[in-house]
Design a protein that fits this description.
heterodimer; A: 232 residues; MetI-like fold; elongated; B: 252 residues; alpha/beta; Rossmann fold; 6-stranded mixed sheet; 4-stranded antiparallel sheet; 9 helices; 10 strands; 36% helix
């Protein structure tokens, strides 16, 4: 049976002593998540544009990628990168594996979010841009993407939070992230409760502000975007 | 400048997958400074005709010539044609994410590479002319339908098109707003703008047209001066069509 302990019996000294380790791990998590999110967004943007333009062959590849990425867990993707690739002579550092894995996963989610936004720009809206003499590239850049991006913001924000949470599996590729530190401390000191509490708090501290900012941005876009607040 | 032939079509035909002969051998021509109004029952192909002229639809057969040069169905170069052929849509289609002014100056700056100050100056002048100067920083959503449509006309005009296509531009408007939009079009006609107008406003058609084209089932059934067409329509089909606008003609 598991030992039940009173919350007040937490070892505060332990928590204070190892806080810097968590901070360091959090910084690493943030750094990798940030790079991964930006790379995911760029990947998603590329995929959604290719899908919009229906570029032959390339679009099939992208559909394949999206299915593969959305229907396999990040954990398995990381295993493949970290343990599979060395077998064919490609050796990647823990950090590279984490970033590539996160981007591989996030790219498809971002692509689908943007795709929904692009679909909401009506055909006749693009035709009115074409009728002003714009080329396809200009229509995409000045008319479709700005509108698609705005309507996709809630989905993009949700993806961002999802990707940050997914970083918790990075410890399997021996990256010293939050989860890794917690497991380490448990292994060494057997302070399970303290280590896990700090882990939960770290993620909350990391994600809550982002969540709040996201909902603020969403609300702003919904009510103030494109002059919605003005009188008719 | 002397008027000359600017746009013509010969035997223009077009079918959709699920609809044959939307346009069935249309011969048409328009001189500079001329205003041609196209009327006809819905589904007669009048909007499709305008869309073909602006290369928004590929054609199946026939020839379109702009300035004597054939418009080939090469859609990679369609932007070059559309720069000269302006179009205004029934649903306005302003860009919702840009202010009125930014809607207007986008294409001249990006497509024609004109200087921003010059374009802005011209845009402001045009907006003033259509009575919307104070709306230049507003977003489309803050405008009424009639205001949106006037902005859409300005947005097309600033490209200095050789010919302007108006596709049922008042069909989505409340009756009071129809007038403010048509006033702008009448003014343009007076200034010698070449226009092809598709409309259901028969009174307006009478006032603005140099020539009326009656289209039915993808064919030009009748072509005449407005007074002639509206007073003494020759074909049975046109008589029938015009009767639908006279409610006293309906027997109960």
């Amino acid at each position: 049976m598991r030992k039940v302990r009173d919350f007040s019996l937490m070892d505060l000294e332990f928590i204070l002593e190892f806080s810097p380790m968590y901070l360091e791990a959090a910084m690493l998590t943030i750094r990798i998540a940030l790079i991964g999110i930006v790379a995911s967004f760029i990947t998603g943007l590329f995929c959604s544009i290719v899908k919009y333009l229906k570029i032959p062959v390339l679009v099939q590849f992208i559909n394949l990628y999206i299915e593969l990425s959305r229907n396999t867990p990040l954990l398995i993707q990381l295993f493949f990168l970290y343990f599979g690739l060395p077998k064919i002579g490609i050796l990647l550092s823990s950090e590279s594996c984490a970033i590539i894995g996160l981007t591989f996963l996030g790219g498809s989610y971002m692509a689908e979010a943007l795709r929904t936004g692009i679909d909401q720009v009506t055909k006749i809206q693009t035709e009115s841009a074409f009728s002003l003499g714009m080329k396809k590239s200009q229509v995409i850049r000045y008319i479709i993407l700005p509108q698609a991006f705005t309507t996709s913001i809630p989905a993009l924000c949700a993806n961002m939070i999802f990707l940050i949470k997914e970083t918790s599996v990075f410890s399997v590729v021996a990256l010293a992230d939050l989860m890794y530190v917690a497991k380490d401390l448990i292994g060494i000191y057997y302070k399970t409760d303290e280590a896990l509490l700090m882990l939960v708090l770290s993620y909350l501290l990391l994600l809550l502000p982002i969540s709040v900012i996201c909902s603020m941005v969403e609300r702003r876009m919904r009510y103030a975007g494109f002059g919605n607040t003005g009188t008719v | 400048m002397e008027n000359h032939l600017i746009l013509e079509t010969q035997e223009l035909s077009k079918s959709y997958e699920n609809q044959k002969n939307v346009l069935n051998g249309i011969n048409f021509s328009i001189q500079t400074g001329e205003v041609v109004v196209i009327v006809g029952p819905s589904g007669c192909g009048k909007s499709t005709f305008l869309r073909c002229l602006n290369m928004l639809e590929p054609i199946d057969a026939g020839v379109i010539r702009l300035d004597g040069k054939e418009i080939h169905q090469d859609f990679k170069k369609a932007h070059l044609i559309r720069e000269k052929v302006g179009m205004v849509f029934q649903s306005y289609e302003l860009f919702p994410h840009r202010t009125v002014l930014d809607n207007i100056i986008l294409a001249p700056i990006k497509v024609q590479k004109r200087k921003k100050e010059d374009v802005t100056k011209e845009a402001v002048a045009l907006l003033t002319r259509v009575g919307l100067f104070e709306k230049k920083s507003a977003y489309p959503r803050q405008l009424s339908g009639g205001q949106k449509q006037r902005v859409a006309i300005v947005r097309a005009l600033i490209m200095h098109p050789e010919i302007l296509l108006l596709d049922e531009i008042t069909a989505a408007l409340d009756p009071e707003m129809v007038r403010e939009v048509l006033q702008v079009v009448l003014q343009l006609a007076k200034e010698g703008m070449t226009m092809i107008i598709v409309t259901h406003e028969m009174g307006f058609a009478k006032a603005v047209a140099d020539r009326v084209l009656f289209l039915d089932q993808g064919q030009v059934v009748e072509e005449a001066a407005p007074f002639e067409f509206f007073t003494y329509p020759k074909s049975e089909r046109a008589k029938q069509f015009l009767n639908t606008f006279h409610y006293e003609a309906i027997e109960i």
